[in-house]
Structures are given as structure tokens and as C-alpha cells.
Amino acid sequence: MATKRIKRPRDSISLAKLIGDIATGKVEDIEEDGRNPAAIARGRLGGVKGGKSRAEKLSPEKRKKQAVKAALVRWKKP
Questions:
Q1: What residues have CB less than 8 Å from 67, skipping those under 6 apart?
Q2: Is 31 within 8 Å of 6 (Cβ atoms)?
Q3: Which end of the chain is more exposed for a tag (fewer CB within 10 A), N or C?
Q4: What CA–CA distance (Å, rounded) separates 8 from 23?
Q5: What is the b/e burial string over 27-66, where b = at least 16 CB atoms within 10 angstroms of the residue's CB?
Q6: Contact 35, 9 (CB under 8 A)
Q7: Contact 46, 54 (CB under 8 A)
Q8: Phi, psi of 35 (to 5 degrees)
Q9: Chain-wide mean pLDDT for the chain?
């Protein structure tokens, strides 16, 4: 399973206690997130090559139209 760190409390006293507990070994600093690492790797693999293969299938006119639209949205003034 994929893991992540325990969320840190915003209160300074609670944070100090948590750090002390982690240092003494009373608390593990790992929290399971329940995701399957193999599924995460497969999803990343598909995401990495997906955009490139999609762009290759588009005609140059459609690709240009999408690029112009994306640039207008990206640089639009708020």
C-alpha cells in the first residue's frame, strides 16, 4: 500500500507532543492511504503517454485550435 505522513496539528503544544511521541517510538509517522501501488503505477503510465498519443491523432488544424484556446484561457486577465 502507498503511505503518507500523519497530518501535523496546528496547535504548537500538540505538535510538540506528536514530535516527542514520534521520536520516542510511541507513534508511527506513517499513515496508510488504502491505494494499490500497482494501480497507481498503471494510471501514471497511461497518463504520461496519453496526451502525446492523443495529439498525434489530431489534425494540425484541430491541434492549433486547441492550443490557441488553451493559451487564451491561460493568459486571461482575472
A1: none
A2: yes
A3: C
A4: 14
A5: eeeeeeeeeeeeeeeeeeeeeeeeeeeeeeeeeeeeeeee
A6: no
A7: no
A8: -95, 150
A9: 87
Residue 5 vs residues 13, 22, 29, 38, 61: alpha-carbon distances, Å: 19, 11, 6, 20, 47
| Grid coordinates of 6 | 500523519
C-alpha cell at 5: 505522513
Cell of 13: 503544544
pTM of the model: 0.42
**Which phi and psi angles does 61 have, rounded to 5°?**
-65, -45
Cell 494510471, residue? 43
